[in-house]
Specification:
Layout lengths: L1 H6 L6 H13 L3 H13 L6 H13 L3 H13 L6 H14 L2 H13 L6 H14 L2 H13 L6 H14 L2 H13 L6 H13 L3 H13 L6 H13 L3 H13 L6 H13 L3 H13 L6 H13 L3 H13 L6 H13 L3 H13 L6 H13 L3 H13 L6 H13 L3 H13 L6 H13 L3 H14 L4 H17 L3 H13 L6 H13 L3 H13 L12 H10 L3 H22 L14
Helix pairs in contact: 2-3, 2-4, 3-4, 4-5, 4-6, 5-6, 6-7, 6-8, 7-8, 8-9, 8-10, 9-10, 10-11, 10-12, 11-12, 12-13, 12-14, 13-14, 14-15, 14-16, 16-17, 16-18, 18-19, 18-20, 19-20, 20-21, 20-22, 21-22, 22-23, 22-24, 23-24, 24-25, 24-26, 25-26, 26-27, 26-28, 27-28, 28-29, 28-30, 29-30, ...
């Protein structure tokens, strides 16, 4: 048609050229649009605001902020004043690209050139700051709008609400609602939903539910976003019962939670080790056609792993692979951990080999789990083999690695090797913890080698690595091994040191030392220990080497039946009180590895 105009000797005007520029820009051909703007000038037709703005608009929509700015500069150099619409185009592009400095410079330039920003311009700037979570800038802009005589609308306030999400500032968002209403702008569903999102970020389920109830009471109708944000808040606060309540409400309206809400529910259920709830959530996601992600599957598999449920962990890893969800090192490591918890070394090693087959490199968690499986099975040689493979593949061992190696050596009866691992980890710059030391201490105690057990316990105390659990366990081990060796002096000394350190001394330690005193014909000392047990609320055993019957028999043999009867009565009274409280108690006897 342009050619026909030329043939008819009709000169195209600005409207014709602008139409050509618009057509090229709409076809996303900004180079061609620029060609026609240049052609327009060559033919003596003055380009208009529309000519330049059309190209700027297309470049802005394409996210090319720099090119859009260059055309704005060219426009002004041509003596054509840009209007607020032109600036808004570039501000919108800056918002999408997160170019806050450029946007602020353009906003200032617009005002310096006497172009009054309209509500759209302010809203675009609000959006930029809201996406960055800059609440101070958002509130400042609302103030600038009032000073400029521009009334903030629902979009303005709703956009400003979003800035409070990043900072999880529930109080600030609530204050803004009151300001919104004070300026005659009624909150809409978007306003309430934005505030609920702030509450969700703050893990404040009570506030989220309160705002959702206000939304429903105002008759505005809650959408998926409002319900999902409330469910997320409840899930992140660990209140799954309330989350279920709102899930049921959504079901009534045939609504499905968002992927984010499902994700929060999955992780909350995983924290509570609730496999039944997790499986139900995965069924719901399947029904809702919500994509299940790798982190979701990993949370599910890890929950089964923590329970030592190999079949459950394997089942979900296989389903994960069948659905095409990418399994990563954490997915496989979780299954290997389940195998370790169940002492199934063969399956643990099989899954490590499977990782190699699919091209996933094991990490330190993977190796720790398989070495732990070796330890649980007493396979010291295989544990060392995996350790060597780990180092050959450039994976640095850590504290848990060495603790598993120490445990494997101990389970295999290789106490000296366990000591060597303890020494090696120090040389590698890894500080042993209470578990490292207490495992070696207990090994020597079980081997009736009191001096070695005592040596390593002193090392533990000197290193300052003991926790209450490991120090209590080690005190009991050393005390008992000296008692079994018949050294009442050393056993009593360690027992007293344990009591002074407020360690949890167990029944076996008291009775072991009491038994030593009985062998030395010292029933009064043995009885004193039973009294201390009663004072500490421990069950006083009737039978055993240092039990109440043995002490009573010692008194009877000395012809003191009155003391014998008193000991029996004390034991009976103590145990009646202990059972009435919470059942028989026995402290400090559980090795830290038993909960691994």
């Amino acid at each position: 048609w342009l050619e026909r105009m030329h043939s008819a000797r009709v000169s195209p005007n600005a409207i014709c050229f602008n139409a050509l520029i618009h057509a090229c820009a709409k076809a996303d051909d900004t180079d061609r649009a620029a060609h026609w703007l240049d052609h327009m000038e060559k033919h003596g037709v003055q380009p208009t605001v529309t000519s330049y703005s059309t190209i700027i608009d297309r470049l802005s929509k394409n996210g090319d902020v720099i090119a859009a700015q260059q055309w704005l500069t060219r426009m002004m150099e041509a003596g054509i004043a840009a209007d607020v619409v032109t600036y808004n185009m570039i501000l919108g592009a800056c918002g999408k690209a997160g170019h806050v400095v450029t946007a602020q410079a353009l906003f200032n330039q617009m005002r310096e050139r006497g172009i009054m920003p309209n509500v759209v311009a302010f809203n675009l700037m609000l959006n930029i700051h809201a996406r960055l979570g800059d609440t101070a800038a958002a509130v400042r802009l609302l103030g600038e709008m009032r000073q400029a005589g521009i009334s903030a609308d629902q979009v303005s306030f709703n956009t400003a609400f979003k800035s409070f999400v990043k900072s999880a500032d529930v109080m600030g968002a609530s204050t803004l609602v009151r300001e919104m209403m004070a300026h005659g702008v009624a909150p809409d569903a978007g306003s309430y939903t934005a505030i609920i999102a702030v509450c969700a970020r703050a893990k404040n389920s009570e506030a989220a539910e309160s705002w959702l109830k206000r939304l429903l009471a105002d008759g505005l109708g809650a959408d998926v976003s409002a319900y999902s944000a409330t469910i997320q808040a409840c899930a992140q606060a660990g209140d799954l019962a309330r989350a279920d309540h709102w899930l049921t409400r959504m079901d009534a309206f045939d609504l499905w939670p968002s992927a984010g809400a499902f994700c929060s529910l999955v992780h909350a259920a995983a924290k509570k080790n609730d496999t039944r709830r997790l499986e139900n959530l995965f069924k719901r996601m399947d029904d809702a056609k919500v994509e299940t992600t790798t982190p979701m599957y990993n949370a599910l598999i890890s929950t089964f792993a923590r329970r030592g449920d190999i079949d459950g962990a394997e089942k979900w890893l296989k389903q994960m692979l069948e659905t095409g969800t990418a399994a990563d090192v954490a997915s496989y490591s979780a299954v290997i951990h389940a195998c370790a918890k169940s002492s199934d070394l063969q399956r643990a090693e099989g899954w490590v080999r499977k990782m190699d087959e699919v091209g996933i490199d094991p990490n330190v968690v993977t190796y720790n789990s398989v070495i732990n499986a070796c330890a649980r099975c007493g396979e010291s040689v295989r544990a060392e083999s995996w350790f060597k493979q780990m180092k050959c593949r450039g994976v640095s061992p850590g504290l848990l690695t060495y603790n598993s190696l120490i445990n494997a050596a101990v389970k295999a009866g290789e106490r000296t090797k366990a000591e060597n691992w303890l020494t090696d980890m120090k040389q590698q710059g890894i500080e042993p913890d209470g578990v490292s030391y207490s495992t070696v201490i207990h090994a020597w105690a079980r081997a009736h080698d009191a001096p070695r057990a005592e040596h390593w316990f002193r090392e533990l105390l000197q290193a300052g690595a003991a926790t209450k659990q490991t120090s209590s366990f080690s005190y009991n081990s050393v005390c008992q091994v000296w008692a079994r060796a018949g050294d009442v002096s050393r056993a009593t000394s360690w027992l007293q040191e344990a009591l002074d350190a407020r360690a949890e001394v167990n029944t076996n330690s008291f009775t072991a030392v009491a038994g030593c005193h009985l062998k030395l014909d010292q029933p009064e000392e043995a009885e004193r220990l039973l009294q201390r047990m009663q004072q500490d609320g421990l069950e006083v055993p009737l039978s055993g080497v240092g039990g109440a019957e043995a002490i009573a028999a010692a008194w009877a043999q000395k012809g003191n039946q009155k003391r014998a009867n008193a000991v029996r009565a004390m034991a009976k009274d103590s145990n009646d009180v202990s059972t009435a409280r919470s059942g028989p108690r026995s402290r400090g006897g559980k090795h830290p590895w038993s909960s691994n």
